[in-house]
Structure formats: C-alpha cells, structure tokens
Amino acid sequence: MLEVFLYSANVYTAFVFFLVLLMIYYVTKLPTDIPPFPKPVLPIFGNLLSLVNKDVLEYFRKLRIEYGHIYSFYMGSQLMIVINGYSAIKEALVQNDRFFSDRLRNFHTETLVKNRGILLTSREIWKENRRFAVKALQEFGFGRPSFEQNILEEAQELIVLGKRFKHTYTSFRDLMDKIDVSASLLGNASVLVNCFPFLQYFPGDPFKVRLVKEISDQLERWCEYNVQEHRITYQKGAERDFIDLYISKANERHEANALSTFTDLQLYISLGDIFGAGSETTATSIRWILLQFLHFPEIQEKCFKEIDQVVGNERIPQLKDNEHLPYLEATIIEILRVYPVAPLALPHAVSKEIIFRGYRIPQGTTILVNLDSVLRDPSTFRDPDVFRPERFLDTDGHITKPQEHIPFSIGRRLFLFLATLIHRFDFLPVEGAQLPELKGILGITYSPEPFLIRAVRRW
C-alpha cells in the first residue's frame, strides 16, 4: 500500500515538474518587444482563462490602468493587441491605416461569411464593395423623401399593430427570430472557435457552431431569393434600390470583360451584413434608452415635453423636427456613449509588421480597437459612468460634442423611431417587479439583458 502511495506521489511530482518546465519554456519563448501583457500566459489557453466570469469591458479598463494605452492579450496562442485612448486609436487607424486596415481570416470570416461581404473582408474586395455600398446607400437612402415616409409608416405600424404588417409572413418572422438567437450566441462562439477551430467538430454542437452556421446559411438563401426576384423585374437605367444598382454594376463589369469582385455570393453576404447590422444596431440602442427611462423617468419626461412642444398631438415627429429637439438628440448621443453598440469595434489585422509607439507588432496580429476606453475616459467626460444627456448641451441648449465622441452615428432611423415612441407612449416599470439591472451582454453587439416594460398610451 505504501509503495503504491509513493509511486503515485512520484508520478504526481514528475507531472507537476513537467508542467513547470513547460510553463518556463513557453514563457521564455514569448516575444519581449511587443506591448506588455497580463501574466500568466498559459500554454494553449494564453490569457483566455482570465476572462472567465468577468465583465470584459471592465477587465480591459483595469488592464489599461496597469499597462497603458497599448497592451497585448493572448487569445489561446493567437496574439491580440488592444489599442486604447483617442490619440492612440487615431494614430493607428488614421495615420497608419495602411498597416491597420486589414481584416482577419478565421472561422467566422471563412466559414460564416466566406470571406465576402462589406464588414469582414480584406483588401480589394472590401475597399471596392464598401465604396460602392456607401454610394448606393446614400443614393437610395435619406436623399429620397420616400425613404423617410417608409420609416414613418414603419413607426406608425409598430404603434398601431405592434409589428410591421408587411413582414408578418411566417418565413420572415422565423428568420428574424433566428438572427436574434445567432447574434446572442455568435460573440462567445466566435471567440472560442476562432481560437480553437477543432471545437466546431465536437459532437452535440455544445458551442452552437452548427446552429449559427445554419442560421447564416438561411439568411444567405433569403438574400439569394430576393436577388433572383429582382433579376426578373430589373430594368437597366431604372434602378430601384441597392440590389438593382449592384446588378447594374456587375453587368457593367461583365460586359467590359473586366475582373470583378461584384459576384452573386458577394451580393448575398453584403445584403446580410447591411440587413443584420442595420436592424440590430437600431433595436439595441432603443432597448438601452428604454431601460434608462425605467431608471430615470425624469429624462423620459424631458424628452416628451420637448417633443410635445415642437410636434403637438396633431401629427407625428418628422426629420425636420430634429434641429428643434436638442435634448432628445443629446439623450441619443449619451446612450451611444455609455452603451455603444460595438464598444470593441470590428477586429482589424496588421497587414505588415510595424513599429508602433515603440513596440513591434507582427504581421497578421489581431488588433482590437477599444472604443469604450474613449467613450468612458474620465479625462474627456466628467463622471463617465453617469448617464447625463446635459453634458452634450451648451449654455444655450445647443448640441455640442467633443471630437473624442466616436461611436456609430445617431442615424435618422433611430431618431424617427424613438421620437415617435416617446411621443405616443409613457414607458414604465412592470408593477410589483424590481427594476431590471443596467447590465450588458457583450456578443456581436453590446445589448441589455432581456427585460419587461409597460407602454402606456399618452393620448
């Protein structure tokens, strides 16, 4: 019995000794000329275990205090560099954009979006298609009066019917529900599977990889169906929307026998990018504002009184009212500051090795731009964790914004929806229930946890 015990103890000691040697070897092999990183860096896992059961944004704030504006973080064996603060972010993305503008190649980009689209592609595909998308969306966006009217109708139908009547058919509602599920799952799933690609093959789909891929494929098929419908009715010179304009551009390249990135697959994925990003960001911002109204009803009341004074009760808010509703605009700006939709932005990659602020950043390194470090910087915003719309109003009640305020733009769609909702409803807590916490879930977007709310008609 004693011999068995001694043998087991020796095996255990040898195993621990081996792990210590492995750790020493691994740590001594880590580069010393890159930005500093938290310790320990474990073999296989890197710094990942330090994120378990932690608020990622709060953890990154602490790392910034300890290591400064630029620090490293190992996602498994993959090096990631986090850039914090307005000056460092501007220096990287504006002054050195040719080095920091590449996109990643990983499970997410290769399997889910097939290295296509306008959000996660690299180099020429991204540059050419993004340039086209910006121009097309401007041409068919708010430059046309009909676009504002469509959004006003959507807002009205949301109020009257509780839904957009045109989109009540089952397949569309089912797709929207699945996109919501995918968005909530994709953040954690992408991080783990990007670090450890073999996880996607685990039996039982514990990381929901196959579910997310299935939803992604459904969205692609839905986009393909809409594109094929457009091809049937397309008329050159009478383009009706983004899809028609894309078809025209692709035909133009084909007729010229020119190499082109304007392919059917690129169009399907681009539509999914636009559709997903547009709906999710607006909905998330509205949820954050309504949650704030539950905690700070006086802010909601100020917004309503301002809208009521300008609009009255004979019509609904319109875009032209925006310049006369500074407090509402300040409230939207403040929600985008405190609860930005994408506080860590989309990851970038370094296209070529560079020395940045005295540190070597190897080619292919993942770059994470921490917008939260700017939007909650106490040197720019006094009491940065306090929700206070007045910080964006000057003494005359006009909007004023520092250059450091760099989240997604307010968006006219968000303004119209929110103004219409506040105009018609008073949003109140559920009677007898505790107020929902002001806690966020960091996935594809930074969104509040699900909560219940009462909407009481004002008139």
Automatic annotation (TrEMBL):
GO molecular function, a single term: metal ion binding
Keywords linked to the UniProt accession: Iron, Membrane, Metal-binding, Transmembrane, Transmembrane helix
Alphabetized SUPFAM superfamilies for the sequence: Cytochrome P450
Membrane-crossing segments per the record: 6-27
Gene3D superfamilies registered for this protein in UniProt: Cytochrome P450
Family as reported in the entry's similarity comment: Belongs to the cytochrome P450 family.
Record-given protein name: Cytochrome P450
Source lineage: Eukaryota, Metazoa, Spiralia, Lophotrochozoa, Mollusca
